[in-house]
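wait is this the right file?? whatever heres the structure
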């Protein structure tokens, strides 16, 4: 029985404008929602549209229209085989492959009548890592108000320039929560070296992508002197990038969309563990569809940044909940989420 593909583009507003290093501000997060149906079962997937990675709605639409019959022409036995099929069918479209791979895993879980984390022989328990809540760059008073409005056990703070450290100190006066700071590759080696002692004193537990993604020479020097664990984000997109991170980062930030889905993410986790690299799960501001896919991987992670749904003003799906930093699953088969009635896939 062939698969049946459905899809819809959405454009979800943020609760507040979201700004990162380089002055990149977003008020909305566009995404592609897909469905794969087989008989009475339907799986859901998602891929945010991120301009930084040259992903556009126009490109995705053109590829789907051109390859739709080939995408549907697959006899499903297991998700890994489908990912390999898609990887060769759509070699230049990892975001689309990610959405379809997630949908296939959701479909497979529903057919097997098991949540995804159980398919991977992992356990869900109360002591799993909490997710950070992200506060984008803004005026200090605005960032402080965002933190006060969302009491949370851990915060991820965007930091670009030296004055942002003063903002970080302002936030620290109001909370004892651990901080993760994210530079999005916006610092120089001299800045990172100079700021490191102050960041440590301010209770920063992790630093994400301090230097430019291709600056591995300086990253090696920073790694060797850093008293704070450093995670690669833009420097580690695909599986092949992990080897470059050895001796330059303490861990890698795996994002399902950028690495092209759950299937390669599972392999990346295994590889990272074998190389003594820590594993962080990262968000691209997905709705509950894409965030649920990441949530099922939390038992395999050290650090979690899966806060997309609570940064967005509205959601397209139900079934994923947040409670004082903990991500809570519905424990239904597959992803355990379902689309709201207002969302219709073509």
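ok assuming it is, sequence goes like this
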């Amino acid at each position: 029985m062939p698969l049946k593909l459905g899809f819809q583009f959405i454009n979800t507003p943020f609760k507040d404008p979201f700004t990162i290093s380089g002055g990149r501000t977003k008020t909305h997060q566009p995404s592609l929602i897909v469905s794969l149906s087989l008989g009475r079962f339907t799986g859901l997937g998602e891929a945010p549209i991120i301009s930084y990675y040259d992903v556009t709605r126009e490109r995705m639409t053109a590829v789907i229209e051109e390859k739709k019959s080939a995408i549907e022409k697959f006899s499903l036995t297991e998700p890994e085989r489908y990912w390999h099929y898609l990887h060769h069918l759509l070699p230049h479209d990892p975001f689309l492959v990610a959405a379809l791979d997630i949908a296939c895993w959701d479909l497979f879980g529903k057919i097997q009548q098991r949540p995804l984390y159980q398919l991977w022989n992992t356990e869900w328990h109360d002591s799993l890592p909490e997710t950070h809540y992200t506060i984008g760059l803004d005026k200090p008073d605005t960032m402080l108000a965002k933190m006060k409005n969302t009491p949370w056990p851990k915060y991820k703070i965007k930091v670009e320039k030296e004055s942002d450290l003063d903002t970080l100190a302002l936030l620290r006066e109001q909370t004892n929560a651990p901080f993760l700071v994210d530079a999005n590759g916006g610092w120089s080696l001299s800045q990172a070296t100079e700021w490191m002692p102050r960041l440590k004193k301010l209770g920063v537990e992790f630093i994400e992508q301090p230097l430019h993604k291709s600056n591995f020479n300086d990253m090696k020097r920073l790694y060797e002197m850093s008293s704070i664990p450093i995670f690669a984000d833009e420097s580690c997109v695909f599986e092949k990038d992990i080897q470059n991170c050895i001796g330059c980062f303490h861990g890698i930030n795996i994002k399902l969309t950028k690495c092209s889905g759950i299937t390669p993410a599972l392999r990346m986790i295994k590889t990272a563990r074998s190389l003594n690299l820590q594993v962080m799960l990262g968000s691209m501001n997905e709705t509950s569809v894409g965030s649920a896919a990441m949530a099922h991987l939390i038992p395999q992670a050290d650090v979690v940044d899966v806060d997309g749904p609570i940064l967005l003003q509205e959601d397209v799906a139900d079934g994923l909940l947040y409670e004082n930093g903990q991500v809570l699953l519905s424990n239904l088969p597959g992803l355990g989420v379902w689309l709201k009635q207002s969302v219709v896939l073509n």
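The chain is about 35% helix and 25% strand. so i think its the right one actually
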